[in-house]
Amino acid sequence: MRGEVPVSIILPTYNRAALLPRSIESVLEQTYGDFELIVVDDGSEDDSAGVVARFADERIRYLRLPKNCGLPTARNAGLAQARGAYLAFQDSDDEWMADKLERQKCLLEIHPETAGVYADMLRVCADGRVLYFRSPTIVPGRLINPQTRYWESYMLALQPALIRRACFGDLRFDKRLSMFEDLDLYLRLAQHHSLLHMPEPLVKYHETHGITSDRQAELQGRRQLLRKYAGALLASDPVFLVKEAVDVLLRRSLLPIVNQHLTPM
């Protein structure tokens, strides 16, 4: 039954057997240990199952999907199995700081009025450089950030967050989106709830090749977001609607916005 553990952590993976140990170990080494870790194998063709099996920890639950379905479906499958009062998400190539869960759970207990808490990250580049990754500050009910003139929740990852399941409710990741399913989910969550920002890094985000570095998926995802929110944008910010449609058509990069959130260390 649900509620048997305080925290459910959902970790989707696809063909990341070489990177999975680092990610799983950073979860198992948390100073707060009363959780379940649901590893959702999205139809991997490598030894991901064997990697997970070698962790002799009863807190791990392994769920294998019959075929590769993509991140939204994998995360939704984990959500369907989650029993915790709090929800957290980990990626198969990243690391949590050891006190992430403990500090975020304590903060949510102090602030019962907020739906979730999220921190900043350290971005570990492929060349060894480390950049400070500042998460945006989310204003409830707002779609477009007036400073960046882009989506309010752009550059807010799932890894540094802890969210109350009661506020998450029936929200699910939109499997129709080829990218930005996390951005979309945060927009919908923040329509009715507040999120608290911890301005310090609690996650190491490792730069590896994947869907987040796929240019075609990015452009398709941007088009899909425009279609999904066209009505709301027409009413609230038609200037952004037109500008983003033109930017996508001209294949303009989001790198200037990304760089606003990154600082060399």
Give a short summary of the structure.
The chain is of the alpha/beta class. Helices cover 34% and strands 23% of the residues.
Which CATH architecture would you pick? Answer: Alpha-Beta Complex
The shape, in one word, is globular
CATH hierarchy, class: Alpha Beta
Give me the number of helical elements: 9
Fraction in beta strands: 15-25%
The CA-CA distance between the termini, in Å, is 45 Å
- Main beta sheet: strand number and arrangement? 10 strands, mixed
Count of strand segments: 12
Domains counted in the coordinates: how many? Answer: 1
What series of H and E elements makes up the topology?
A: EHEHEHEEHEEEEEHHEHHHE
Q: Could you state the CATH homologous superfamily?
A: Spore Coat Polysaccharide Biosynthesis Protein SpsA, Chain A
The chain-level mean pLDDT equals 94
Fraction of residues in H or I helices: 25-40%
- Extract low-pLDDT stretches: none
Please tell me about this protein's structure.
This protein is α/β, with parallel strands linked by helices. It has one domain (7-264): Spore Coat Polysaccharide Biosynthesis Protein SpsA, Chain A (Alpha-Beta Complex), CATH 3.90.550. The chain has nine helices and twelve strands. It has helices spanning 20-28, 48-53, 71-81, 100-110, 165-168, 181-189, 215-236, 238-249, 255-260, and strands at 7-13, 35-41, 60-64, 86-89, 95-96, 116-124, 130-133, 144-145, 150-151, 161-164, 195-206, 262-264. The strands form two sheets. Strands 1, 2, 3, 4, 5, 6, 7, 10, 11 and 12 form a ten-stranded mixed β-sheet that branches. Strands 8-9 form a two-stranded antiparallel ribbon. It is globular and about 55 Å long. The N and C termini lie far apart (45 Å). The model has no long low-confidence stretch (mean pLDDT 94).
